[in-house]
Amino acid sequence: MKRLSAALLPATLLAATVATPAHAAEPAPTNVTIRWVDATHQAIRLTWDETSPQPNWIILQGKENTTPIGQFWTTADEPNQVDIPATSMSAGAHDLRMAVAVGSKDGGISPLTGSPRFDTTLPPMPELVSSAISGSSTLTAQWKSGPAATDTTPDDPLDVTGPAVFQASYQVGSKDPVTVGPTGPATKLTFTAPGPAFAFSVAQVNEWGPSTAKLVDAAASAPTLTVPSWVVYDNLLDLTGEIAGTDPRTVILQARNTPAGAWYTVASRVNTTGSYRFTFQSTPSRQYRVQVPNTTAGARVWYGGYSAIGTNNVQHKVYGVFPRPTINRGETARAALTVHPAYNGTAVLQRYSGTAWTTVGPVGFTSGIGNGYVRSTAPGRVSYRYYVPTATVGGGTYHAAYSSIFVLTTT
Fold it and tell me: In what order do the strands lie in the sheet with 56-61?
């Protein structure tokens, strides 16, 4: 028996076209058969009969039985049998046959006798049935065989019957694929990848090779959130962020009032652009984050998660004004105070001496309204401001703030 390696074939049996030698008078071989060498389906055994030992010309022919698309030769002292590696055959071909003639490179040959026709059709491409994700990188996928190609040589000697066989794998970036699960008939698998970004593929395998389809593309939503550090009470608070990709996903804005407090939902929306904005009137000082749940959209899955936490500090809004900004020497001026949010507390009225701010005195306020009083003894212009310390109002923290400067003129 002669076993032909792939190196002995002309760049596989589907190699460049070669010329056919002229026929001679030798009798043609008979009973040309093909079969698998064993159950591993690694090699094809070609056998034939002839009346006496002869050199032989062996070719692979296509549908029309014309010019050979691959050839090799055997000598008279070799048996009428060769084993051809299955990898030497180009997968995906149809309506082929092996043909044997008596003859040598140096002499004429007999007519060709062909084997039964066969094909090297690959299995159908797998198709996704469903996918589900959990945690940060766990995938459950179910699949099925796709439509099969038309078998042009049904029940040929190299057809292998049995259930469909699959092998699943995942690939991270440009790294080599990693197989997961057994090779077998199972059509559902749950596994955990090393991270949220990977491609999941399934190969259906037959005797000629695999047909591999990428069924799921997984990625991380990776939400971000930008939170202004400071804002004045009742001003607009503008929170912005981004997620990877533009597939529709729900973005949930969460907040908590203290670093040890429980998170609660402030707002949510479905995002389809990859960037988002939450704008609302400022409330007490809070910490914020966004959550994006795991999202499955058929072949595209997004692992969710949380953004980094951002803290927004809200200051009091403080107004100070002299309703009568110009007075005569020796008169008393009223310094009106308004504090937001409204509550009961004590502010400090301050005066600028020309080099530093000094304390005039405490000024109480009720429901955010108070009044301080200044008696002027010398002509001129003097600057004043109010300071309101940090306070807890309605369970929320509002940080210390100054009013704008307001001026008293004495004549």
Answer: 70-74, 56-61, 97-102, 113-114
Within a domain: residue 186? yes
- When computed from its CA atoms, the radius of gyration of the chain, rounded to whole angstroms, is 43
Q: What is the dihedral of CA 382, 386, 387, 393, to 10 degrees?
A: 180
pTM above 0.90?
no
Q: How far apart are CA 131 and CA 142, in angstroms?
A: 6
Whether a cis peptide bond, with omega within 30° of 0, leads into 53 is: no
- Of 68, 84, 114, the last residue of a domain is 114
Straight-line distance from the first to the last Cα atom of the chain, in angstroms, rounded to the nearest whole number: 125
CA distance 278 to 97: 69
Residues 171 and 206 in one domain: yes
Amino acid at 92: G
**64 and 146 belong to one structural domain:** no
The enclosing domain of 285 has a CATH number of 2.60.40
User: Exposed/middle/buried for 404, CB within 10 Å: 0-12, 13-18, 19+?
Assistant: exposed
Q: 305-306 and 317-321 as β-strands: parallel, antiparallel, unpaired?
A: unpaired
Structure tokens at 222: 């990776």
Last residue of a domain, one of 218, 245, 276: 218
pLDDT in tens, 153-207: 999 999 999 999 999 999 999 999 999 999 999 999 999 999 999 999 999 999 9
